[in-house]
Amino acid sequence: MRLGRNDPCWCNSGKKYKQCHAAMDEKIAQYKAKGAKVPSHKIIKTPAQIEGIRKAGVLNTEILNMVEEKICAGMSTDDINTLVHEFTVSHGGTPAPLGYCGFPKSVCTSINNVVCHGIPSPDEFLKEGDIVNVDVTTILDGYYADASRMFCIGEVSPEAKKLVQVTKESVDLALKEVKPWGFLGDIGYVISQYIYANGYTVLRDIGGHGVGNDFHEDPYVCHIGERGKGMLLVPGMVFTIEPMVNAGKEPFFEDEANGWTIYTKDGSLSAQWEYTVLVTEDGAEVITH
Ligand code: MF3
Ligand code: CO
Ligand code: CO
After folding, report:
1. For 261, which of 63, 192, 254, 255 could close a Cys bridge (C-beta 3.0–4.6 Å)?
2. Is the shortest distance between the CB of 274 and ligand 1 below 6 Å?
3. Topology (CATH level 3) of domain 40-288
């Protein structure tokens, strides 16, 4: 049944449809008629959900800040897991990775040639010169926020430093593309162009995702794309941008041993940076700053 203009809006704002999402839905329908891939209502967060996701984002950022303060050479990746787990739980949150599809720990820690999904271990120690990604996903009051940062342990090589920096810059460039009536392809376009211009490669088959009501939701956010292609961006969409960038020319393979950890095929370094972002009325809000 079609929603009447005087009916309450589908987003539960309490406003009439005509004073809330009616105009936006109309515009989306026009894009759809022209052949664009458009988001369903399920993908568009309600004001209440956005509030909840923001709070999860605040805690997620506090966790990453805490890791940033404590991370150092000599620490095991299991020590990072303990820090993240205890901080999360003591602040009323739940670490989303723990038990997710059987993942055994509360955080992913991916060192040097590990592309992503490294499993913390008491036998794996951080050493001077390492680059490590710590990927934290927090559930708070049922809402999810997901972000990761790279950390350089002591002095790292100029090559490692540049890879980490270029990866971060690619996400910052992509943020400028996050605005209503843009396209997911714009994000993939600017990221891949920037990464290739620096002589690196970026994974096509592991990427960002809708997030907020669940850990991984639609849409898939590919970091390789074409301008004007892919799903239309509209206010209320929440998704991650999280390119995995390899210094070498090869993509990845899955570790047979644990079924999770992905390594670069040629042993080259890999870096990743991840934000959760919200499409606002006039641009982007980083949920995980
Ligand atoms: N945090 C990762 C992401 O950015 C997903 C990790 S899944 C896990 O999507 F099970 F390994 F935690
Ligand atoms: Co993610
Ligand atoms: Co993540």
Report:
1. 255
2. yes
3. Creatine Amidinohydrolase (3.90.230)
